[in-house]
Amino acid sequence: MSGTPLQATYRVISLIFFIMPIVTWIALMGRRSRSLYLWCGGSLLFSGGLTLLSLRGAFPDWATYPLAQALAFFGQAMHVQAIQLKYGLAWRLPHLLMMGLCYVVLFEILHHIVGNDRLRAGYASLVQVTLLMCIGWAAWRLWQKKYNRNSLMIAVGTTVFATAIFIRIPLNYDSFLIPLGGLIGSIASHVGYIGITLEEAVRAEAESFASKARLEEAQVFANQLARLERQRSMGLMAATLGHELMQPLAAILTNARVLRRRLETDRNEKAKVLELCDRIAANTRRAAHIIDSIRTFIRPNEMVMVPVHLEEVTKEVLELIKGEARRCRITVDFIPALGSPLVLGDPVQLSQVLLNVLRNALEPLQAATHRQGHVRIHRHGDRVCVSVRDTGPGFPLAMLNEQCTEFKTHKPKGLGMGLAISRSIVQQHQGTLQTRNAEEGGGMVDICLPALAPAGGSCA
Amino acid sequence: MTRRALPPANKDQAARLKKGLVTIIDDDTEILVALAALLDLEGYAYETFTSPLDFLNSLNAPPPKFPGPVCVLSDVKMPELDGLELQRQLVAVNDTPLLLMSGMSGVEEAVTGFRAGALDFILKPIDDEALLQRIDEALAVSGQHQVTRGRVLALEQKLSLLTNREREVAQMVVRGQLNREIAAELNIALRTVKVHRQRAMEKLEASNTAELVRLMNEEGL
User: Which of A446, A360, A443 is CA-nearest to residue A395?
Assistant: First the structure.
């Protein structure tokens, strides 16, 4: 194709600006975003504008002058947008359209009314330089905000290209500098753009790994905290649990002594001897069961999610708390739900929550005249709830309002950790723990967990 | 829950009645059964309660009173009423000796128990020899109480036979006044004083003045 050397220059640059976005597009195939569309689209528009410029004479004037200028303008403007989007700031579309329109109108005025070709070309070049500097400036800002080194490449590339065009204004013509600047600018900025996007992706991935790791770490800490709290509450209960253990041991000792006395003195009717042996065995099992439940409770274990019968967990906990209730002369009644509903959860952690809530309920009862605890399991829609009510003074209003705050307590001896840890355990089970004061008086705690099987469904 | 366990054989029953009745109170059934087996083997009469309230109520009911010595063996820690409170309430009703058992070596508890009048404080797990020894001691105390109570009762019966004048005269004798002084003070004949004094001694079955004084002092009149 024939033409002036300048037109040949335009053709070379337009070819570069046609190839580079395609390369970029292919490189970033898997990471399409609005910014990538704007960047590649902008390059293609710019390439189209330059192609039209290079076809002056062969094509009608309206296409090679105003349309070509508009395409070049919007192409570069889209590049600015693409980079600004990377740090979440973009020009408004109406403003952009208005600026483009003004540019083209002024260009046409210079072209047709003033008729000064040199002034017109200078004006167009100056606007192009300004736009390139805007891209460079946006890239510089990106470097400052996100420390993405590849954005410096864009800044350098656009500056080189802008310099090449700027030199052309006073000299009016340089067939060598412009394509060189265009080549460097285009390649540098496109490669830079690919770099930015890839670096962003790597960072995002690293960030997601880090947050995953943090989450896992938090889970480990939560488990450890829960375990420590379990050990602490066992420690607080040690005296009463020891007494609880003493009961079967005392029974075993007495039975064994009676057995010996019988065998010693030939008063060994078989039925009596067998009964004594059975009693010794039964009490040994009872003692073993108490030790076993304590050991299960304080054993460090990972959270496991298995189907749990809330009723059984509650009974176990009531067994653990029996000694303490006895010591404080508190009676606790228990109403299980029909059909023994199942929930998905960690049996140890759930019993920890129940133990906490029950001990919390028993503590204020020691000062009360009527000492009664009520435990009830019931279904509430698709949830299974354990409600613990006491006949104590209830929760102080301040506690009810600050119920989510961790480490708050209204008891002189407590650390205020029990309820906070219980709440976080229940939340990990997709459940809720609510404290309130019952209408009948006294404090009330509702623990609600998602039911596993439909009502009446029986699973092992 | 009340369980009265008096073995059927009459001879055995008689022996048990003589040895004494032990009331065992513990809210733990296993302990209750084990202790009952021990007492059964050793030939005591026994009854068991899981609730101290039931036991106190049974005291108010009019059952045939156990003729021999009795004692109560109770746990300290119980939900409705603890052993110390039981002790306080029991003292108000009668003088049955109480033995307390505890699973914990609570010095405070033991002190409070003794202050309230518990006869002894036994730690769980219980040594059978020691327990039986304590029970025997408690039953002996109870037997002693019963003997004293019987004597006082008999004396009261005898005293109720005295006429007012006879009692008046007997009291003055105890104070060490001579017949003559009594006659002057009551403004009656000396002979009449002698008759009253003789009758009082006959009714109280006192062979001499010294015995009359002892009997009257024992009664606290």
Answer: A443
CA distance A322 to A237: 11
Asked if B33's CB is within 8 angstroms of A253's CB, the reply is no
Query: Mean of the pLDDT values across residues A390-397?
Result: 80
- Residue B102 CB contacts under 8 Å (≥ 6 apart), including other chains: B75, B76, B77, B83, B109, B110, B121, B122, B123, B124
Q: Can you give the pLDDT at residue B48?
A: 92
Name the DSSP letter for residue A384. E
Write the pLDDT tens digit of every residue in B8-24: 567 777 788 788 899 99
Which amino acid is it at A27?
A: A
Which H or E run contains A375? strand A372-380
Contact residues for A33 (Cβ-Cβ < 8 A; gap 6+): A85, A197
Q: CA–CA separation, B1 vs B47, rounded Å?
A: 10
| Strands (DSSP E) found in A165-243 | none
Residue B22's pLDDT is 92
Token duo for residue A439: 């209408």
Quick check: helix, strand or coil at residue A373?
A: strand
Type of residue found at A402: E
Question: What are the residues whose beta carbons fall under 8 Å from the beta carbon of A326, sequence distance 6 or more?
Answer: A240, B27, B77, B78, B79
In this predicted model, which residue has the larger pLDDT, A369 or B164? B164
- Amino acid of residue B132: L
- As for the ipTM of the complex, it is 0.71
CA of B29 to nearest chain A CA: how many angstroms apart? 9
Give, as one character, the DSSP assignment of residue B91.
H
Predicted TM-score of the model (pTM): 0.57
With cut-offs at 50, 70 and 90, classify the pLDDT of residue A172: low
Q: How confident is the model at residue A449 (pLDDT cuts 50, 70, 90)?
A: very high
Alpha-carbon separation of residue A7 from A67, A132, A182 (angstroms): 16, 21, 14
Euclidean distance between CA atoms A433 and B113, whole angstroms: 43
- C-beta atoms of B79 and A249 within 8 A: no
Do A257 and B38 make contact, defined as CB atoms within 8 angstroms? yes
Handedness of CA A425, A431, A435, A439 (dihedral sign): negative
Cis peptide before A347 (omega within 30 of 0): no
Interface test with B, best of A254, A255, A272 (most B CBs within 10 A): A254
Q: Name the E strands within A72-222.
A: none
Which own/partner contact pairs does B189-197 have at CB distance under 8 Å and 24+ positions apart?
Answer: B193/B169, B196/B165, B196/B166, B196/B169, B196/B170, B197/B169, B197/B170, B197/B173
Query: Using the beta-carbon criterion (under 8 Å), do A325 and B79 form an inter-chain contact?
Result: yes
What is the identity of the amino acid at B120?
A: D
